[in-house]
Every structure is written in C-alpha cells, then in structure tokens.
From TrEMBL:
InterPro entries the UniProt entry points to: UPP_synth-like, UPP_synth-like_CS, UPP_synth-like_sf
GO molecular function, one term: ditrans,polycis-polyprenyl diphosphate synthase [(2E,6E)-farnesyl diphosphate specific] activity
Pathway: Protein modification; protein glycosylation
Top enzyme class: transferase
Protein name from the UniProt record: Alkyl transferase
General function of this protein: Catalyzes cis-prenyl chain elongation to produce the polyprenyl backbone of dolichol, a glycosyl carrier-lipid required for the biosynthesis of several classes of glycoprotein.
GO biological process, one term: polyprenol biosynthetic process
Record family assignment: Belongs to the UPP synthase family.
Length: 239
C-alpha cells in the first residue's frame, strides 16, 4: 500500500492528521475498506495487506509512534466495519514486536471475526518475509526435535508442508496477484515464499487514490497469464 506519505504531502495533511480532517494513513485505510468491498463484488475472497513491516520500525520514532496510534484507532474502526461486511480478520507477523495494547487489540479482532467467511483479510504487521521464513524453519525444527525425542516420528527429514504450516501466512492460500502501488517494482520482503507463481502488478497510482478500475485492470492482466500460473501450481502439487 505504497504512496501514503506522498498522498498526505500532496493533500497538505499533517503527520497525525490534524489538518484537513484526515490523518496520513486515514485515506489509505478507507482505500483498503473500499478495495475490500470491490473484491467482494468481484469474487476475490482472500485479501492480504502489507500494513507495517519490521523495517518500518527503523523510521523516525515519532513517525512509528504516530503510525502505531493510528493503527490502534483503525483496529477499533475495523471491528465495526468487518462485521458489517462479514469479513474474517487475521494478522500475520511477529506480533511480539507490537505494544501490548496493539497486540491485544489484534487478537481480539481475530477472535471476534472468527465466524465470518464472506472474505478473509490478512493484515501483515511487524512482518517481513525473511523473518516469517526463519520463524517457520525454527518452529519446524523444534517440533521435529520433540517428535523424535518422544518417539512420535522416526524420520528426521523436515517436509516442505510442515514448514508451510508454520508460516504466519498459513491462514491464506498463496496469492494469485500481488499489487504494489506508488510506482515501485520490488517485493520488499513481502510474501517471498508465497509469491512463487503469483502475478506481480505494480502501478503508479498512490495507494489512497486506488480505484476500482486499477483493481479490474490488475485482474484482467492476471487472467491473461493465469493458465501458466495455475499450471505451475498444479504441477508443483503433483510432485
Ligand atoms: C488497520 C489497517 C490495515 C490500516 C492500514 C493503514 C495503512 C494504509 C497503512 C500503510 C502503512 C505504510 C507504511 C504504507 C507505505 O506507505 P508510505 O508511508 O511508505 O508512503 P510513501 O510510499 O509515500 O513513502
């Protein structure tokens, strides 16, 4: 969801949102809600948003602080909105890096929406793909060690499926399309494992300005290439 700061600058919004009645990330949050609605209309069930990376903690302390405060407010708003839209919410990332309050709020939101299934929104927060892979490998090794020690397993090989189950993103299937706004063409540590066969679509539009036609265009582009992507996924499963 790149382009929030550039959009705020363009709109002359202050960092914490005092000016113009909207915060730096407010417009971006509403853009996400609108995209969620369009995705429901277009039959896209799983939506994953990269909201805050572990690398974002390296931004200026006041900026991180303001983003975290804004995140907490948005979780409260989300609690109302996702229930209206019957959306299940998951969080992916190293939640231990968040404040107790934010982590508790994320967990409450996950529990409160567990019964909804019209769509599934995964919010990547305190996330990087390399950290996720490291976490999954460590967990898989530890589980294997315990299984071997207690005689529940006699094969010391760690299977791919097991590592995948330990990914933060195990709550959602691999993405068909990865959309990046703001004109960047990099993955920037996002879903490196899961994007193996994904269609990558970058656009110049700033995230808060994304509209339904940007989404439709990305889907049409994916559909042109989808036979290849889906074939590769199928072949991989058959191996
Ligand atoms: C609850 C929830 C999911 C809220 C979403 C809020 C939101 C839109 C978060 C985006 C955060 C972020 C660091 C975006 C990157 O844009 P940037 O700040 O790097 O902007 P730039 O590309 O213009 O520098």
């Amino acid at each position: 969801m790149d382009g929030n700061r550039r959009y705020a600058k363009k709109q002359k919004l202050s960092h914490d949102g005092a000016a113009g009645g909207g915060g730096r990330y407010d417009a971006g949050f509403w853009a996400l809600m609108v995209m969620l609605l369009y995705c429901q209309e277009l039959g896209v069930k799983y939506i994953t948003a990269y909201a805050f990376s572990i690398d974002n903690f390296k931004r200026k302390p006041e900026e991180v602080e303001s983003l975290m405060t804004s995140m907490l407010e948005k979780f409260h708003l989300l609690d109302i909105l996702v229930k209206l839209l019957a959306v299940r919410v998951h969080f992916a990332g190293n939640l231990e890096l968040l404040s107790n309050e934010l982590r508790a709020s994320a967990m409450e939101l996950t529990e409160a929406t567990a019964a909804y299934s019209k769509s599934v929104l995964t919010i990547c927060i305190a996330y990087t793909s390399r950290d996720e892979i490291l976490h999954a490998v460590r967990e898989s090794c530890e589980q294997k060690r315990i299984d071997l020690e207690f005689g529940n397993d006699d094969d010391d090989e760690i299977k791919l499926m097991k590592v995948e189950k330990n990914m933060y993103m195990a709550v959602a299937p691999d993405p068909d399309i990865i959309i990046r706004t703001g004109g960047e063409n990099r993955l920037s540590n996002f879903l490196l494992w899961q994007s193996c066969w994904s269609h990558l679509h970058s656009m110049w539009v700033l995230w808060p300005e994304i509209g339904v036609w940007n989404l439709v265009f990305a889907i049409l582009n994916f559909q042109r290439n989808k036979t290849y992507c889906l074939d590769m996924k199928k072949k991989e499963k058959e191996l």
